[in-house]
Amino acid sequence: MDLKTMLKQGPGQLADFMIQPDIDRLAETLVAFANADGGTILVGIGASGQISGLEADDLETSLMRAQMRCRPPVKTEWQSLETPRGAVVAVVVPRSAEFHTLDDGRILLRSGAKNRRLAGDEIQQLAVAKGAGVFEDEAVAGATLEDLDLEIIAEYEHKRRERAPRGERLTREELLLESGAMDRQKQVTIAGILLFGKRPEAFLPQTGLVFVRFAGTEASGVGAVSGYGRREEIGGPLARVVEKSWAVLWEEMRKAAVINGLSREEKPEYPESAVREALVNAIVHRDYRLRGRRIEIRMFDDRLEIISPGGLPGHITVDNIVEEHFSRNPRLVRGLFYWGYIEELGIGVDRMIDSMARAGHPAPQFDAKPYSFTVTLRNARERAPMIWPESMNERQLRAVKYLEEHGRINNRDYRALFPEISAETVRLDLADMAAKGLLLKIGDKKGTFYILK
């Protein structure tokens, strides 16, 4: 993404802004990014766009001192971004396979727009994830560059120029190295075979996807052909798996005719964005170490189940899956981001929840087991009756009715319902409902909104 786009999106999972290089904050952000999925620190510019006129020597000195606080030091790359009002430096922090701490013992992880301190079991879970290494970076025995599809590499190169920060042209070798498709010894990696392989399943039989359409609401026909309405095995490089899987899903989804003014529109039984998020997440976050199992999509009359081999990565749990982010396969994530199948890095689950709520569906269900993760989307459009705590005030009860009608609410909506109350009262009312487990907070800062939990 270019500087203009990054400013529009603001600080987040993969970006931070510093008008002046602050040593302590630099060190904290270096560690937090390296322990998570990496990121970019834009130094010399504030989140609102003000530019300080950065001196390169000042940044170099501050960065060196910040690195001295990191254990071990964090690898970085610099990119100078020229603007009409002065220079801005992008300090690019790649995701690290090592476990980083600060010199005072604190362990930080990037969480949304903040550097969050880890404690207790979270530290152990992150250490285990780091200690396991990055499977996608391992070389594939027997694979050569001849096993990569030049046509799909060229397609990726074109897509990358459109979405990359600088949009520069790379040689074929530079592109393969940057994407992680091959290592410095020119060996083809797991990521390379999955992203660009002619036949990834020849080296990784567990890759690909199985789609099954069941008749009714139970998998009563498992193992018997008569139980299936349709069964498809989908393979190939990941971009093709996404495209073919979506085509099958779209064909199998029921559509209702909706008249909008003078035009007729088709409304699918599931929100398109929710299905796409669940599908792409399963493909990029599955544990490709696990053999003998492929991703499964099971479509029933009342629900859609997407089952991904492998439990949740790192410190991620069902309880923190909306707020936290950690990728098992960061190269695959970035690859499908450049392809355009991931709208914004570090965001996805909250959008899935939001789109289901907007369509009047129940929230997605997440089931995490040691060796699988299942997302279930239900096509019902009616909400089950809920029992609300007696401690809720009249404003909150009225806000619940608003949520049942509109699917979501933010501070501005709440204030419009009750123009006589202060902004602080709005914040306290919504925070109280979230603390009671009635609402789920989505987004950050000005983009924050709430849905019924």
The percent range for helix content is 25-40%
β-strand percent reads: 15-25%
Overall geometry comes to globular
- Ranges where pLDDT stays below 50 over 5 or more residues in a row are 222-226
Q: Termini distance? A: 33 Å
Major sheet, described briefly? 6 strands, mixed
CATH domain class of the largest domain: Alpha Beta
Number of domains: 4
Side by side, the strands of the main sheet go: 10-9-13-14-16-15
Per CATH, the architecture of the largest domain is 2-Layer Sandwich
- What's the pLDDT, averaged over the residues? 87
Number of helices: 15
Could you explain the architecture of this structure?
The protein has 453 residues and is an alpha+beta fold. It folds into four domains: 115 residues, Schlafen, AAA domain (Methyltransferase, Cobalt-precorrin-4 Transmethylase, Domain 2), CATH 3.30.950.30; 64 residues, no CATH class; 170 residues, 2-Layer Sandwich (Heat Shock Protein 90), CATH 3.30.565; 59 residues, Winged helix-like DNA-binding domain superfamily/Winged helix DNA-binding domain (Arc Repressor Mutant, subunit A). Helices cover 35% and strands 21% of the residues. The strands form six sheets. A six-stranded mixed beta sheet has the order 10-9-13-14-16-15, with helices on one face. Strand 4 and strand 5 form a beta hairpin. The radius of gyration is 24 Å and the shape is globular.
